[in-house]
Amino acid sequence: MFSSSTDEVGDTPECRETWGVSPMDRSEPNETTSYCPPSTSSSSSHQSLGEGNSSSGHGLSLPRMASGQLHHSYTLNRTSSSLLATTSDSSSLRSRGVTPKLRRTPGSAGAPGTHPARTPLTDHTVTSCSSATSTCGASVIVAVVEGRGLARGEIGIASLNLKCPELILSQFADTGAYAKVITKMHILVPLEILMPDTASEKGKGTKLFNLITENFPGVAFTAIQRKYFNERKGLEYIQQLCAPEFGTVIMEVQTKYYCLAAAAALLKYLEFIQNSVYAAKSLKVTFKGSEQTAMIDSASATNLELVVNNRDHRSEHTLLGVLNHTKTPGGARRLRSNILEPLVDVDTINIRLDTIQELLQDEELFFGLKNAIGHFLDIDQLLSVLVQIPKQETIQVAEAKITHVIQLKHTLDLVPRLRLVLKNCKTALLKAYSTSLEDNRFDMILAQIKTVINEDTTYLKGSLNMRTQKCYAVRPNINEFLDIARRAYTEIVDDIAGLVNQTGEKYGLPMRTSFSTARGFFIQMKLEGVVLPQGRLPPEFIKVTKHKNNYGFTIADLMKMNDRCDEALREIFHMSYVVTCQLLSTVHEHIHCLYKLSDAVSMLDMLLSLANACTISDYVRPEFTDTLAIKQGRHPILERIVGQQPISNNSYISEGSNFVIITGPNMSGKSTYLKQVALCQIMAQIGSFVPAEYASFRVADQIFTRIGVDDDFETNSSTFMLEMKEIAYIIHNVSDRSLIIIDELGRGTSAEEGIGICHTVCEFLLSLKAFTLFATHYLELCHLESLYPNVENQHMEVQHTRSRDTGAESVVYTYLLNRGCSEERHYGLRAAEMTALPSNIIQESKIIASKVSQQLLAKHHSDPETQRQRAVYHLATRLMQTARNSRLDPESLRMYLKGLKKQYEAELQAAGPSESMDTEEE
Length: 922
Ligand SMILES: Nc1ncnc2c1ncn2[C@@H]1O[C@H](COP(=O)(O)OP(=O)(O)OP(=O)(O)O)[C@@H](O)[C@H]1O
Description:
alpha/beta, MutS, DNA mismatch repair protein, Chain A, domain 3, seven-stranded mixed sheet, six-stranded mixed sheet, 36 helices, 27 strands, 47% helix, disordered N terminus, ATP-dependent DNA damage sensor activity, DNA_mismatch_repair_MutS_core, DNA_mismatch_repair_MutS/MSH, nucleotide-binding, ATP-binding
């Protein structure tokens, strides 16, 4: 990008063929897509500051770096938007109810004369980030393409965050491909979605197109001509743009045609809307299949309030809100994406847990790191601008470039401090980051920066501060004209201060000089104790504003001085830009070490944040076994909401007892408990400690939830359809290592149908090895325990108290989970008693209901043979589990086995005549 060397992407004819004038481009007569070697660069689109700003009088020419940039450029001097599909497609999109609200794509240069870069700002994109909005913001453009004919169902996705130069590729081809694509896209929070025009041909969309439009109703779709989804071009792009550090990805993706095709369309579109190109060898390119992370579908993420609170989108009562104590935007983004896509590799999780443990044990390290991390800016965003080459050079571009150099220096200045903090760390991950920071490129770039940038130039908050930093960033004696311009600027600023003083003296008023980006220098005056001449402001004071007790205004002379100030600044920025461009051209080839830094800072920030959460509440380090066992687990968000520890509960799910039915009256805490288990599982899989006294988890490859929505706005039938869709999704996608949470299935239909559906779904799920927690009001389902040995009934206990005075009964919720089916009967009728329903109707209902339940209960007791088989099954599964996981010493193991024997005998006793235990004991 910044180099003038020609060997990276040469201007050889071969290179022109592969990179510049590809068949794709040639076939487009109305586009002037062309490769522009330095000598032939278009003067209209690449006008130098010197040329364009002849009024400066210095006649400075375009810095070498700018022409060097063009070396690697893939320049689009577009006059038309032929990249986009014809209007018929967009109208077909609109006819589907997609009403785009337009806004400028963040990060787009938007220079005059270019195609206006517009992407939609949608309700979805605004709200779905909520607590994470400040950190994640919708700035991701996603391209999606599906195979045709036999390859239908093979789907490639390419996405790029405008604030982070990482191209992420994914490809799905298995049965759950559609669901995975939707989930992946929800996680990305797209600002805009690109699809081939053929996906929505003649107003009749493909299955994928329809799914996407349904799931992202507010996000803008852009139909791109299918020919731009070109896998060969995609591979070329990646070979050209991928930074060498991430080069192995090319091996990974070279036969993944659909994600390559999506990448081609995406990168081309980005060039088009941003009016800039990515520099050669500058992008981080990664392939993310669905294997490395656990899948949490978007409905489940919503149900569990992972990143967005369902009642108030701005509320921090989410898992992200509980765990987010990050100091940098990169750290917050990383935490968010980890929560939505937890890890599945136990070693990686344990490495993170080791780090958190070290942070918790070593206070000096914890606070040292927290301090060091807190000063970092958004490194991804910085990288993003450093690797982009603007196609037009304006004064704004020049000013921004100087800011970027200052930010780069500020960032690199922080590296030694970070190294120092990590010097004596002990755990593997911290050591690895410590080593990665030893990379001498950090020092090399900083040393080069310091040859032209003042030692004490740094990033500061406040527009005037930053303006001053930019103005004096370049060392003196590097450019004679720059020094002269700066002297002129200083004089004008001094004159402004003098003018304000004089004016104050003239009117006898206490005036001071202020500055804002919009107004430049202006005068401020407090009204307190001030006597105005003739009781009003003198007419000389113009553009008066009043805020609380403060007047802001200016005078004609000050406005003129502001203009002179701006003129001087323009020259300063222009000349500083030339110097900074030269500087960047010398450091650009090393700039990719910032990817390492970004990775280190965001990960350290996230782990610090997770450690921080442990200091606020009592969390414990989880273990990973083949059993889910939580002792005194708590709901992490409820804990935050109520500000005290909620009632804790134990959980136990193993292969031999993998289906738990939970009953209990309304408001007894069933949903809370279910969510608590899922949230703890997710926390453990991102490498966080969990709110419990002890916790062991089996790694889940997928987490599904089906949780009843409040039906205040849904009709019964739509509630039912939603339930059925969600349950169908689970049934189609479940695996033996999934965790499933189902709360109140079958509410949206009649009781018989509801019970029927629940029964069948339960039988299907309990035939798998997945762990399922199933909460229901249908007590009839409890008899599944007597039919299947791996089913266990549990219930939320409630107590009844009767008032001595009135005799009225009231219910006390204990929120405690106990073995067995809920004894509570007819709590619906109790609720009805509170209403105006006549008492004779209630009495009659009670009699009928109790008859029905007696009949049902009679059927629940299984025959002795089944009970015996059940006892044997339980013993066998516990013995197997012990053999696999036990870390007990021989004596404790003997005691444990004795306990198992007793339990087995008791179960047999309950079943009927006892059997000999000799065989088991041996
Ligand atoms: N473990 C707990 N500790 C303290 N409070 C709790 C606990 N569990 C639940 N609660 C409180 O009880 C309320 C009701 O809980 P929840 O919604 O989980 O009940 P439910 O049995 O699922 O009810 P329904 O069957 O009507 O959906 C929660 O909003 C919460 O305030």
